[in-house]
Amino acid sequence: MSDDGYSLSHWEVLRRDSHADCRVFSVLRKTCRHPVRKREGEFFVIQSPAWVNVIALTPEQKLILVRQYRFGTEGISLEIPGGMIDGGESPVAAAVRELREETGYVGRDAREIGVVHPNPAIQENSCHLVLVEDVRMEAELDWDGNEELETVIADVDETFALARAGGITHSLVIDAFFFFLPHWERLKSVKRM
Length: 193
Hints:
Blueprint: E1 12-21, E2 26-33, E3 40-47, E4 51-56, E5 62-70, E6 75-79, E7 82-84, H1 91-103, E8 105-116, E9 127-137, E10 149-155, H2 156-164, H3 171-192
Parallel strand pairs: 4-9
Antiparallel strand pairs: 1-2, 2-3, 4-7, 5-6, 5-10, 8-9
């Protein structure tokens, strides 16, 4: 309850209609009504499969990054590997697959370290953040037809500094760094001992 005594309410969904099918996502038109104020409105929501982003560390504690062209920003973006989770696939299995397909790296001890909602105002899906350790180049690249990536092996602390300076701007990558930071601090303290 807020300071003014008002309590937030879940809007009632009166109707869901398909508005557009855009190959990798669809747009849904929702007609909703507020349960107390009875106000109705139309809202457009992007439906997409869940996504996964991968923090991959080499045995030398280096981070695997990828550079790729992004059509939304019409520029090259420095990111971590990731992609869509296939139907019936677990987030960890999707992370291992995406890492292998995009970079050729395979690792061990893959585990989920966080989940975020990319933009809950207009999107229904979630993005799972997975840490994979001890990754080594062991597989052939298997890019999608429109993918072209450059693999970058980077120092973790330098990558964090680059992100803070605005050199990495993909919000889901920044989210992954946020969830990874406690793991990284723990790894660094073990190395110092």
